[in-house]
Write a structure and sequence with these properties.
Belongs to the glycosyltransferase 22 family. PIGZ subfamily. InterPro entries: GPI_mannosylTrfase. By secondary structure, this protein is an alpha/beta fold. It is globular and about 85 Å long.
Length: 540
């Protein structure tokens, strides 16, 4: 029964992985957009993290995660003599990649970390039925990669401590092909891998060590008995750090790469990141939160009914896995900038440690299913779900567009325009007040134009992309209203909800829900300026 349920939940994971929801701009701007711009020469937008004098984002884990599949795609396309790989192909390939990493590596790690067969089955079902697994783990977040590296670092720590020969190492103690001392060889290999993982995880996100700080203490007795294990961890960590610094130095330093640059002017992105985030003034630009944000708000937002199970834990359930999760949350709570996705590595670790309640178990299961179904559909299908399809539509449209203004949406991924952004300027107006938005859009329009839609090839064609729930725009696409600017609907994507456009204190809960959910969708409007005098001629 549990196998059928597990495989059904994998199908659910596949569905959400292939849905174009957009959880946060960082899933593009801190990953695929940067690498795709180098591999395929797509015109891409690099954010301030990559362009500042002291860059704080490492490209080393990006090449490890996204670089090789992009190069394989380019090699295949060149081999079959196709045209350049379409960004949409790259986008969906990376989604399938993250789905595969989630199903294979995340679930495999949990099977190794949970000792009891019965508890292992329950853990796999809980993790596979979590909306966090369906959505965040199938998107290209650095937090999603961090989750995998944390889980496998714990697996390696467990193998080192227990002197296990893991199946991933390709040898067992009874193997005829193993060396004379397979446990020694497996311990050395696990130590070397752990050294590499620690560096890769830290260069990916500086929050990574928080989840390993306390569990790594369990290695101290092992190091006392087998000091060579520590030597191999340090040795491979140094080699990995040198490689990562070399990759970043080559990426951020103009001109040809030389090892002299690594020695004399190295770019150490984790250090830059730590120094940047150590300044409260910098964190204030991104939002400051109370110290209890992670524990009282973010964690329940990710776990839902499973949060209550933490209070039902028995002493026997306090394992290294749970200690990693709770200590990581505690250490991250020290910093004032706290987003829910920072806790992603803790979610599978907690779900692998708790057990279902003995009292009212069916009620809890119903609440768990309902919570994840609602959040899964909201975050996995509708949350900013029109941004990627709209960009792909604009990339394929035959109409020549000079500018596209985006209003009340997340920042759109530029690289999906398939090179059109060489002629098309994308302007992100974010949540700018309506009057200011119209003023900005008006600067892109000719001084006067007759009431006719632009012809194909008209260089002055301007798009405005905005949610249908933005009622401020209603007068401008109503032909009965005499406004200076007219909006004509070109295309729309229905499965889009903008949670940042909710004004419950002003409009009330039900009226807000009726507007945001009832009038869901993202619309592409063609913008024209209207001259109501019949004598007025369009200015060329």
């Amino acid at each position: 029964m549990w196998r059928r349920t597990y495989f059904l939940l994998i199908l659910v994971r596949i569905y959400f992985a292939l849905s174009p929801s957009y959880l946060h701009p960082d899933e593009n701007f801190q990953g695929p957009e940067v690498v795709a711009g180098r591999v395929f020469s797509y015109p891409a937008h690099e954010t301030w993290e990559f362009t500042s004098a002291h860059p704080i984002r490492s490209t080393f884990p990006l090449w490890l995660a996204y670089g090789w599949p992009m190069y394989i795609l380019r090699w295949l396309w060149e081999g079959f003599r196709y045209e350049e790989v379409s960004p949409s192909v790259v986008y969906w390939t990376l989604r399938v990649l993250m789905l595969s990493l989630s199903v294979v590596l995340e679930d495999w790690a949990i099977q190794e970390l949970v000792q009891s067969r019965r508890a292992r089955r329950a853990a796999l079902l809980l993790i596979a039925s979590s909306y966090v697994t369906w959505t965040f783990q199938t998107h290209t977040f650095s937090n999603s990669l961090e989750t995998l590296v944390v889980s496998w670092s714990l697996v390696l720590i467990q193998r080192i401590v227990e002197d296990k020969v893991g199946p991933s190492l390709g040898m067992r103690s009874g193997s005829a092909h193993a060396a004379n001392d397979p446990q020694k060889r497996s311990g050395i290999l696990a130590s070397a891998m752990l050294g590499f993982f620690v560096v890769a995880g830290t260069f990916n996100r500086i929050t990574f060590p928080a989840f390993l700080a306390v569990p790594s203490l369990s290695l101290l007795p092992h190091f006392w008995r087998k000091p060579f294990s520590l030597v191999f961890i340090i040795l491979f960590a140094i080699l990995a750090a040198f490689l990562a610094i070399s990759v970043d130095t080559a990426f951020y330093t103009p001109g040809d790469f030389t090892f002299a640059n690594v020695l004399h002017n190295p770019v150490i992105t984790p250090l830059n990141n730590f120094l940047y985030n150590s300044n409260p003034a910098n964190l204030a630009q991104h939002g400051l939160h109370p110290r209890y944000q992670h524990i009282l708000i973010n964690l329940p937002q990710l776990l839902g009914p499973a949060t209550a199970l933490l209070f039902l834990l028995r002493r026997s359930q306090i394992t290294m896995t749970l200690v990693s999760a709770l200590s990581g949350i505690a250490l991250l709570s020290v910093f004032p900038h706290q987003e829910a996705r920072f806790l992603l590595p803790a979610v599978p670790l907690i779900l692998a440690s708790v057990s279902l309640p003995r009292v009212q178990r069916n009620f809890w299961i119903a609440a768990w299913v309902l919570f994840n179904a609602v959040l899964g559909v909201l975050m996995g299908v509708y949350h900013q779900g029109g941004i990627v399809p709209v960009q792909m539509h604009i990339a394929k449209t035959n109409e020549t567009v000079s500018q596209a203004f985006w209003w009340k949406t997340y920042s759109p991924p530029i690289w999906l325009l398939n090179g059109k952004n060489e002629q098309l300027k994308t302007v992100d107006l974010m949540g700018m007040p309506g009057d200011e938005m119209l003023e900005q859009v008006g600067t892109a329009l000719p001084s006067c134009r007759t009431r006719r839609p632009p012809k194909l090839g008209d260089r002055s064609t301007v798009y405005l992309v905005a949610p249908r729930s933005a009622y401020f725009l209603h007068p401008y696409h109503d032909p009965a209203r005499h406004e200076d600017i007219s909006l004509e609907e070109v295309w729309n994507f229905r499965r889009h909800i903008n949670l940042d456009d909710m004004d419950i204190p002003k409009d009330g809960f039900w009226k807000t829900m009726d507007r945001v959910v009832g009038d869901r969708g993202l619309v592409v409007w063609r913008v024209t300026r209207i001259c109501w005098s019949e004598q007025t001629q369009p200015i060329s």
